[in-house]
Amino acid sequence: MSQHRPLVAADIMTKNVVTKGPNDDLTRIAEEMQRHKIGSVVIVENRKPVGILTERDFVRIVERLGALLEKSLAKYHMTTPVLSVHSDTPLAEVVKLMDEKHIRHLIVLEKNGEVGGVISSRDLMKVKEHVTAV
Predict the structure, then answer these.
(1) In the chain, beta strands by DSSP E
(2) What tens digit of pLDDT does each residue of 106-119 get?
(3) Fold observed for domain 9-133
């Protein structure tokens, strides 16, 4: 019987994270999400996460579009405070946090506090499929 270490956040996170600033235009952010086929963009200031914009946020924005025409910057619509874990956080804790907070995207931080990746509910499903197949 081989010894396997428990999975941690860094094992399943998506590493190539698209980031934008709080003053970036929502249309450009939506274009980036479409071009990269992703469900979230991390909003950063000084290379540190300050918010996240997800597909759910854009649904909410469209719903309120009439009142928002003059407020098309990320900072008016991003989700804050930022929920995050460190890259060495055990996967069980990641799953628990995402479940308790009802979120589909979780930012993974490196030791210096910068964005190292993002874990989505899709990433969790891939792990579940892999574990089930073994």
Answers:
(1) 19-20, 40-45, 48-54, 84-86, 105-109, 115-120
(2) 999 999 999 999 99
(3) CBS-domain (3.10.580)
